[in-house]
Design goal:
Structural class: alpha/beta
Cofactor: Zn(2+)
Largest sheet: 7 strands, mixed
Number of strands: 18
InterPro entries: ADH-like_C, ADH-like_N, ADH_Zn_CS, ER, GroES-like_sf, MycoS_dep_FDH, NAD(P)-bd_dom_sf
CATH class of the largest domain: Alpha Beta
Enzyme class: oxidoreductase
Helix content: 25-40%
CATH superfamily of the largest domain: Medium-chain alcohol dehydrogenases, catalytic domain
Number of helices: 11
Order of helices and strands: EEEHEEEHEEEEHHEHEHEHEHEHEHEHE
Number of domains: 2
Shape: globular
Keywords: Metal-binding, Oxidoreductase, Zinc
Protein name: S-(Hydroxymethyl)mycothiol dehydrogenase
Radius of gyration: 20 Å
C-alpha cells in the first residue's frame, strides 16, 4: 500500500519549492524504503528548481533533496545486505556492475547507476523526478538498495547525511581525483561545503601547505578550521601570484576549483606548478564555455580533470568518512550551519545564494 508522506516539490521552473503530500510505494525487487532523518540543502537542489539540471523543463515536477541519512523501514524482494532498522546514508551512485566502466574495474565511473524502478507520485498520480535519483526532502523515500549505504549508527544524522553529496564531492576531488599526497602543496578555490571538504581531505592526506582562496574573509576564516594553512582573498589580491608566493614561486601541485566559473577555472589553470593537476569540482552553468591558451596547455603538462562525485565508491568511502568523523579526525558537524524544518527549504535556498551558510540541514 502506498505511503502518504510530506515532501518538497518543485512544480515548474523558477517557482518556489512547496511542501505537498505525495505517494511512495512499498519497495519492489531490489528496492528499499527509507525513513529520512536529515537531508542537507545542496546547490544541486536549487539547480533542479531552476530547471538547470535533470532534463530541464521536461523533468518537472521534481522531488528535491538528496544529501540524506535515515533508517531502512522496509526492504523489497531480493535485498539481502540491508535490514529494517539499519542506519544508512543515501548515495546517488549505485554501480550496476555490468556497464563498460564497471567491467573495466572502475565502478566509481559507473555509466548506468541504479535507481528505484517504481515512481513516487503526486496524489493525482503524476510521476515525480527525484533529485539525483533520491528525492529525500520527504518523510520517506524509495531508492535502489545499492543507493543505501550502511554506516555506523553512532553518527548524528544531520552530519552523516552530508557525505552523501557535498562532503564526498570535495573529499574525493582531493583524495581520488587530485591524488593529494604527503608533502604536496594544494590550493582550493571556493570555500563552501565542497571546497572545505577538499581542504579537510588535503590536510588529512599530509599536504605541506593547503591554501584557501575565496572572496569572503568569513569563509576564509572557516577554511582554517578545516585545515587551511594559508588564505588568499582574491577580491583584492591576484590569487595566482599569491599562490605562487606561497609555493616558493612554483605554483601548487594540486589545484581544486570548487566554484564552477570560467574565471576561477582559468585562475586554477595558471596557479599550478609544472606538471600540476587541476581538478574541477564546481558545477558550471550549462551555457558556460571556456577558452584556454593551447601552447600553455601543452607546455605546462600535468592534468586537467573533472571530478564526478569525488570519483567515489560509496560502499567503500562512506563508512570510512563516518569512522573519521566518529574518531574526531573529520568534523562533519562543522559543516552544519543550521537545522531547519521541511517547510523552510525555500528560505534556505535564499540564504545559500547569499553565501550565509555552509549547509542548512532539514531534520525530520
Amino acid at each position: 500500500m502506498p505511503h502518504e508522506v510530506r515532501a518538497v516539490i518543485a512544480m515548474k521552473k523558477d517557482a518556489p519549492a512547496e511542501v505537498q503530500t505525495i505517494l511512495v510505494p512499498d519497495p519492489g525487487p531490489g528496492e528499499v524504503l527509507v525513513s529520512i532523518q536529515a537531508c542537507g540543502v545542496c546547490h544541486t537542489d536549487l539547480h533542479y528548481r531552476e530547471g538547470a539540471v535533470g532534463g530541464s523543463i521536461d523533468g518537472f515536477p521534481f522531488l528535491l533533496g538528496h544529501e540524506a541519512a535515515g533508517i531502512v523501514e522496509q526492504t523489497g524482494p531480493g535485498v539481502t545486505d540491508l535490514r529494517p532498522g539499519d542506519f544508512v546514508v543515501l548515495a546517488w551512485r549505485a554501480p550496476c556492475g555490468s556497464c563498460r566502466s564497471c567491467r573495466k574495474g572502475r565502478p566509481w565511473y559507473c555509466f548506468d547507476s541504479r535507481n528505484a524502478r517504481q515512481p513516487m507520485t503526486l496524489l493525482d498520480g503524476t510521476p515525480l523526478t527525484p533529485a539525483l535519483g533520491i528525492g529525500a526532502f520527504a518523510d520517506r523515500t524509495l531508492v535502489d538498495a545499492g543507493q543505501a549505504v550502511k554506516v555506523d549508527p553512532a553518527a548524528r544524522p544531520e552530519a552523516a547525511g552530508l557525505i552523501g553529496c557535498g562532503v564526498m564531492a570535495g573529499w574525493g576531488a582531493a583524495v581520488h581525483t587530485g591524488g593529494v599526497s604527503y608533502g604536496d602543496t594544494v590550493a582550493v578555490i571556493g570555500c563552501g561545503g565542497v571546497g572545505n571538504a577538499a581542504i579537510a581531505a588535503a590536510s588529512l592526506a599530509g599536504a605541506r601547505r593547503v591554501i584557501a582562496v575565496d572572496i569572503d574573509d568569513n569563509k576564509l576564516d572557516v577554511a582554517t578550521q578545516f585545515g587551511a594553512t594559508h588564505s588568499v582573498n582574491s577580491r583584492g589580491t591576484d590569487p595566482v601570484e599569491a599562490v605562487r608566493r606561497l609555493t616558493d614561486g612554483h605554483g601548487a601541485d594540486v589545484v581544486i576549483e570548487a566554484v564552477g566559473r570560467p574565471e576561477t577555472y582559468l585562475q586554477g589553470f595558471a596557479m599550478r606548478d609544472l606538471a600540476g593537476v587541476l581538478v574541477q569540482a564546481g558545477v558550471p552553468a550549462p551555457d558556460v564555455t571556456i577558452e584556454l591558451p593551447f601552447q600553455e596547455l601543452f607546455s605546462r603538462g600535468g592534468a586537467l580533470k573533472s571530478s564526478w562525485y569525488g570519483d567515489c565508491l560509496p560502499s567503500r568511502d562512506f563508512p570510512v568518512l563516518i569512522d573519521l568523523y566518529l574518531s574526531g579526525k573529520l568534523d562533519l558537524g562543522a559543516f552544519v550551519t543550521e537545522t531547519i524544518a521541511l517547510d523552510e527549504v525555500e528560505v534556505a535556498f535564499e540564504r545559500m545564494q547569499r553565501g550565509k551558510v555552509l549547509r542548512s540541514v532539514v531534520v525530520l
